[in-house]
Design a protein that fits this description.
Layout: E1 4-5, E2 13-16, E3 25-28, E4 31-34, E5 44-46, E6 55-58, E7 61-66, E8 75-76, E9 81-82, E10 107-112, E11 118-119, E12 123-128, H1 134-144, E13 154-157, H2 168-182, E14 187-194, H3 202-209, E15 217-221, H4 228-243, E16 249-252, E17 257-262, H5 273-286, E18 290-293, H6 303-308, H7 313-332, H8 343-347, H9 353-360, E19 369-373, E20 384-387, H10 393-402, E21 407-412, E22 424-428, H11 431-436, E23 443-444, H12 454-469, H13 475-479
Helix pairs in contact: 1-4, 2-3, 2-10, 5-12
């Protein structure tokens, strides 16, 4: 295993791949540097002299400015580097060519729904219209487990605190996200559980759901029945009878939609896990499949890379709007646009938002951007899509599910147990995390620092994802973790 890596030939820093002691001599081409500090794994050290104000280069791009003189071998982190980012930027479109070559599609075993859509799970979902009925939803979920039979893979209640006392965009977001989840093909049947007096009531929500199969979607307004549990179980029994005999069948990878997300990143995330996911994304797209990249605030500092990969000028303009609208959102609330990275990111070796974003966007691979989606929009074009959503893990992952993703690839250098309404594959950036939190981590991308190349691991990982799409449960599914969170921006009445 290497002790350190210079990611790009133009970088003036290297990244430690294990803890390196002060006094260690490192050799790189014609350089021989003695480390002047102890360098933790995932952290950076200088390869040259820096004067105050010099660019610090990583991934081939500036990740910030030196705030003092730095000698070769010194540790570079938040104590001697700061962001270069500032307010709204005027962007130029400098398009690049498509480098993803087409390949024959692969296959997984999924569920073909009667409307032609494809699901990778055969679950019955209980979706409350309002947080007031969350306890009823959870009780229905709990007691319904004994009713599961045949090919039903779970009966799950997705609780949330919203659906009433909301205004404007918040109310719109709640209705749209819930409607998208009700229509999600991973759910073979859905019980929509309402109270009766909420803003997001069943009658209103039906306008967002659109045409539906009344064998697949059932509605229960709790204020309108004497015993809501008894009425709920009658409807769940109908959904069970409708779904229990559904069978998996071969589906082409050109119909697979995968969300891309990271959280709790470290200094190795942009070297191992995120490039692995990027390689997967390119491979899936080469077979005609679709990926969705989100968490807009973690594009800041690397957004021009995505902008220049937009398929046309209109998509470039949409990407600029997406980026600037998120910046205006921060300014509207008198918050710093660049209040990032998080404490966990910094502990793992990420020093600035540019550092984080350039690593984060590695998940997008090299494919051209084919569409830019607003929050709550559903994917419609095969290829790489950008989705407007915040960086928060639960909110962004729910947004990916609501956009139509069948599953999420979630890279992490710190670890997290959370899940989402769809299978959420946890990919560790380092093997220590994969070993320590084996009950959380599904795939170890740290292997690329050992005996396996990225190319070898990419093929293995692609087959693993097809297995998950074919029914293999990820760690969070095994223990029964499911989460849902909706983007809240405004006031609550």
């Amino acid at each position: 295993m290497q002790d350190f890596i210079r990611i790009n030939k133009n970088d003036n820093v290297a990244v430690a791949l294990r803890d390196l002691d002060k006094g260690t001599k490192v050799h790189l081409e014609n350089l021989c540097i003695t480390l002047l500090d102890t360098i933790p794994s995932g952290h950076k050290f200088a390869l040259t002299n820096f004067s105050k104000g010099d660019d610090v280069i990583k991934y081939g791009y500036p990740i910030g400015l030196a705030t003092e003189h730095i000698n070769p071998g010194q540790w570079i982190h938040i104590h001697n580097i700061c962001t270069k980012l500032n307010d709204i930027i005027n962007y130029n479109y400098n398009p690049v060519g498509d480098t993803v070559n087409k390949k024959d599609k692969s296959f997984f075993l999924g569920f073909r729904r009667e409307n032609g859509s494809v699901g990778i799970r055969n679950e019955i979902w209980i979706i409350p219209t309002v947080g007031c009925v969350n306890s009823i939803a959870k009780e229905l979920e709990k007691q319904a487990q004994t009713r599961i039979k045949g090919n039903i893979e779970g009966i799950i209640a997705y609780t949330h605190p919203y659906g009433c006392s909301q205004m404007g965009d918040d109310q719109e977001n709640t209705r749209q996200i819930l409607a998208n989840l009700i229509n999600h093909p991973n759910a073979s049947g859905v019980l929509v559980l309402g109270l009766g007096c909420e803003n997001c009531n069943i009658a209103e929500l039906k306008h967002y759901i659109g045409p539906y199969n009344d064998c697949r979607v059932k509605f229960l307004e709790c204020q309108s029945v004497e015993d809501e549990l008894e009425a709920g179980f009658l409807l769940l029994d109908e959904l069970i009878e409708y779904t229990y005999a559904m069978m998996r069948e071969p589906i082409g990878s050109d119909e697979l939609i995968v969300g891309l997300k990271c959280g709790g990143s470290d200094g190795l995330s942009g070297i191992t896990a995120n490039p692995l996911v990027g390689a997967f994304s390119d491979l899936l797209i080469s077979t005609g499949g679709t990926t969705i990249l989100t968490e807009v605030p973690e594009m800041f500092g690397a957004e021009t890379i995505l902008m220049n990969r937009c398929h046309n000028r209109d998509l470039f303009d949409k990407t600029v709007t997406m980026i600037n609208e998120f910046k205006e959102y921060y300014k509207k609330h008198d918050q710093s646009i660049y209040e990032n990275p998080s404490p966990g990111n910094k502990k793992g070796g990420i020093s600035t938002l540019e550092d984080k974003s350039l690593g984060c966007t590695q998940k997008s691979g090299a494919a051209l951007v084919v569409d830019v989606l607003k929050y709550g929009e559903i994917v419609k074009n095969n290829g790489l899509n950008l989705l407007s959503a915040p960086g928060n893990d639960l909110v962004a992952s729910t947004a990916l599910a609501a956009a139509g993703a069948h599953l999420i690839l979630f890279t992490t250098g710190r670890g997290t147990p959370f899940a989402s309404p769809i299978p959420t594959v946890k990919i560790s950036s380092n093997s220590n995390l994969a070993s320590k939190k084996n009950n959380w981590v599904d795939f170890d991308a740290g292997q690329v620092l050992g005996e396996k190349t990225l190319e070898e691991l990419k093929e293995e990982f692609f087959q693993y994802v097809l297995e998950v799409a074919s029914g293999k449960k990820v760690k969070s599914e095994v223990v029964g973790y499911y989460d849902l969170a909706i983007f809240k921006q405004g006031v609550t009445l």
